[in-house]
Design brief:
alpha+beta, Elongation Factor Tu (Ef-tu), domain 3, 6-stranded antiparallel beta barrel, 2 helices, about 15% helix, about 45% strand
Length: about 100
Protein backbone atom coordinates (compact mmCIF):
# COMPACT_ATOMS: atom_id res chain seq x y z
CA UNK A 1 0.00 0.00 0.00
CA UNK A 2 1.23 3.52 -0.73
CA UNK A 3 -0.02 7.05 -0.05
CA UNK A 4 -2.90 6.66 -2.52
CA UNK A 5 -4.13 3.36 -1.13
CA UNK A 6 -3.86 -0.24 -2.28
CA UNK A 7 -2.36 -0.37 -5.79
CA UNK A 8 -3.27 -2.85 -8.54
CA UNK A 9 -1.93 -2.94 -12.09
CA UNK A 10 -3.32 -4.68 -15.16
CA UNK A 11 -3.72 -4.42 -18.93
CA UNK A 12 -7.13 -4.56 -20.58
CA UNK A 13 -8.94 -4.04 -23.86
CA UNK A 14 -11.04 -0.90 -24.29
CA UNK A 15 -14.72 -1.58 -24.97
CA UNK A 16 -17.52 0.63 -26.24
CA UNK A 17 -21.08 0.30 -24.98
CA UNK A 18 -24.14 2.25 -26.09
CA UNK A 19 -27.79 1.57 -25.42
CA UNK A 20 -28.61 3.09 -28.82
CA UNK A 21 -26.74 3.40 -32.12
CA UNK A 22 -27.66 7.11 -32.08
CA UNK A 23 -25.94 7.76 -28.74
CA UNK A 24 -22.19 8.04 -28.14
CA UNK A 25 -22.19 5.60 -25.20
CA UNK A 26 -19.37 4.74 -22.84
CA UNK A 27 -15.80 3.53 -23.22
CA UNK A 28 -14.54 1.30 -20.45
CA UNK A 29 -12.21 -1.53 -19.51
CA UNK A 30 -13.10 -4.66 -17.59
CA UNK A 31 -10.87 -5.48 -14.66
CA UNK A 32 -9.59 -9.06 -14.88
CA UNK A 33 -11.88 -11.60 -13.16
CA UNK A 34 -9.29 -12.71 -10.61
CA UNK A 35 -8.39 -9.11 -9.75
CA UNK A 36 -12.08 -8.20 -9.42
CA UNK A 37 -12.62 -11.09 -7.02
CA UNK A 38 -9.61 -10.05 -4.92
CA UNK A 39 -10.70 -6.40 -4.74
CA UNK A 40 -14.29 -7.31 -3.89
CA UNK A 41 -13.16 -9.73 -1.18
CA UNK A 42 -10.80 -7.18 0.39
CA UNK A 43 -12.80 -3.96 -0.04
CA UNK A 44 -16.51 -4.74 -0.62
CA UNK A 45 -17.39 -2.65 2.47
CA UNK A 46 -16.12 0.42 0.58
CA UNK A 47 -18.71 -0.01 -2.17
CA UNK A 48 -21.43 2.61 -2.36
CA UNK A 49 -24.70 2.43 -4.29
CA UNK A 50 -24.84 0.05 -7.28
CA UNK A 51 -21.44 -1.48 -6.46
CA UNK A 52 -19.52 1.76 -7.00
CA UNK A 53 -16.06 2.05 -5.44
CA UNK A 54 -13.91 5.18 -5.51
CA UNK A 55 -10.46 4.79 -7.03
CA UNK A 56 -7.53 6.75 -8.37
CA UNK A 57 -6.46 5.68 -11.86
CA UNK A 58 -3.36 6.18 -13.94
CA UNK A 59 -2.79 5.34 -17.57
CA UNK A 60 0.02 6.83 -19.61
CA UNK A 61 0.75 10.31 -18.27
CA UNK A 62 -2.80 10.82 -16.92
CA UNK A 63 -4.02 10.31 -13.37
CA UNK A 64 -7.56 11.01 -12.16
CA UNK A 65 -10.20 10.24 -9.54
CA UNK A 66 -13.16 8.12 -10.61
CA UNK A 67 -15.06 4.99 -9.61
CA UNK A 68 -15.16 1.38 -10.67
CA UNK A 69 -18.55 -0.33 -10.85
CA UNK A 70 -19.23 -3.98 -10.03
CA UNK A 71 -21.17 -5.71 -12.80
CA UNK A 72 -22.97 -8.69 -11.26
CA UNK A 73 -23.69 -10.21 -14.69
CA UNK A 74 -19.99 -10.35 -15.56
CA UNK A 75 -18.80 -10.78 -11.96
CA UNK A 76 -16.14 -8.12 -12.39
CA UNK A 77 -15.53 -4.40 -12.02
CA UNK A 78 -15.82 -1.99 -14.93
CA UNK A 79 -13.73 1.15 -15.24
CA UNK A 80 -15.18 3.94 -17.40
CA UNK A 81 -12.58 6.04 -19.20
CA UNK A 82 -13.40 9.73 -19.47
CA UNK A 83 -13.43 11.41 -22.89
CA UNK A 84 -10.75 13.92 -21.85
CA UNK A 85 -8.42 11.08 -20.83
CA UNK A 86 -9.13 9.12 -24.03
CA UNK A 87 -8.31 12.18 -26.10
CA UNK A 88 -5.12 13.03 -24.20
CA UNK A 89 -3.83 9.43 -24.20
CA UNK A 90 -5.14 8.58 -27.70
CA UNK A 91 -7.26 5.73 -26.34
CA UNK A 92 -9.70 4.18 -28.80
CA UNK A 93 -11.94 1.13 -28.89
CA UNK A 94 -10.27 -2.29 -29.00
CA UNK A 95 -6.75 -1.24 -27.97
CA UNK A 96 -5.03 -2.68 -24.91
CA UNK A 97 -4.19 -0.13 -22.21
CA UNK A 98 -2.01 -0.43 -19.14
CA UNK A 99 -3.86 0.68 -16.01
CA UNK A 100 -2.87 1.28 -12.41
CA UNK A 101 -5.64 1.76 -9.87
CA UNK A 102 -5.52 2.62 -6.21
CA UNK A 103 -8.40 1.70 -3.93
CA UNK A 104 -9.05 4.83 -1.87
CA UNK A 105 -9.03 3.39 1.66
Amino acid sequence: MDELGMKYEFSAKVYHHSSSPDLPGWMFVKLPEELSREIRKQFKELEEGWGRMRVTVRTGDSQWQTSIWFDTKQDRYLLPIKAAIRKKEKIVKDIIVDIAIWINV
